Amino acid sequence: xxxxxxxxxPSAAPLAERMRPRRFEELVGxxxxxxSGSPLALMRDGRHLSSLILWGAPGTxxxxxxxxxxxxxxxxxxxxxxxxxxxxxxxxxxxxxxLERKSSGKPTxxxxxxxxxxNRAQQDAFLAHVERGxxxxxxxxxxxxxxxxxxxxxxxxxxxxLRELGVEDLRRLVERALSxxxxxxxxxSTIEEDALELLAHAADGxxxxxxxxxxxxxxxxxxxxxxxxxERALQSRHLRYDRAGExxxxxxxxxxxxxxxxxxxxxxxxxxxxxAAGEDPLYVGRRLVxxxxxxxxxxxxxxxxxxxxxxxxxxxxGSPEGELALAQCAVYLATAPKSNAVYRAFGAALDAxxxxxxxxxxxxxxxxxxxxxxxxxxxxxxxxxxxEPGRIAAQDHWPEGMAPRQxxxxxxxxxxxxxxxxxxxxxxxLNRRRGASS
Length: 438
Hints:
Elements: H1 15-18, H2 39-44, E1 52-55, H3 62-73, E2 77-81, H4 87-104, E3 108-113, H5 120-124, H6 127-132, E4 135-141, H7 145-148, H8 151-154, E5 158-161, H9 167-179, E6 190-191, H10 193-202, H11 207-221, E7 224-225, H12 227-234, H13 246-260, H14 264-276, H15 281-296, H16 303-317, H17 323-335, H18 341-356, H19 371-375, H20 416-437
Parallel strand pairs: 1-4, 1-5, 2-3, 3-4, 6-7
């Protein structure tokens, strides 16, 4: 925890900390949240303080904005992280904030980094103090607040969405760090254009990552920073991902919809993105199995066994060998004919089953393992399909009081076109027999 806004020895602090904006004008990439009349514009201008949830990717300025607000409003600033602090620290901060407000009349701006890491009970601890005005809560999260912040807290705070920094935003920050003689890169350095372009792209929208890599590259170069210095400073590109958060659902949705739209190359890309970022490959395998039934279905009956085989192959081989089986499966599913007829039919059948309740099957298709059941008519008049013309029997399979329904409506895609032809042939034959017997 810290009550200091911009403290610390400038020369000892990392470059990313030294270059932290000291004025709102130095912020880049977030002009949209300071539009006239917005909560942040009112706070910047010292006109109204309100609790906020700042939602954005790493390195987009959440901590900086909280510090600048406190500085502009002239209120005490306390920051701590939900990763390293527990409920005990929360209560201590609340007690000090209450005393501060009694003595000075000013609330404390409490900045909680990664507020989504607090559980619901811990988040609830802030509510009474927000309502009394002891604190102005500014929470920061990289996760969708709708999922990770409880509704009571959300109702008392405005959610402000920060944009991921673009390549031009990051270029500006790097160039500023190179030209700032007071806080910037030491030793003084210049950077070649291709090295700057690589750094701005590879930082993946994260200002902190860009400046940290720049500091390492400058120390290695000792003057002129070249592409090789940046490559070594970056080592490997970080892929932003959270296996339990919104990015997880965004990427699996992108994979599923690329497969559904038969875009094989995009499907491979999203599969690679998920695996490279650390997703559990078995989770991806399960989703491919699901897709084989939901979106391919009987248009290609081989899709499901292939998906199960890919899942099993990864289970046996692990990474990286087993990942190729998942890629093979993704290519097959993307290029397979598509049908969701089984998916829709089963959904309709489930609805009908819930609506109809516990209607019994008709006597003709019930099992009759005992003499009493035979006496009651169980199985009476049953026609054995293998003894019937075309191996189909004209008999009632629906509960008493429930008219036959058509749930499954096969498409003309792939093998399902053959299924459609068979069903039409059988329906015509059964209608002919019923007409002949009437």
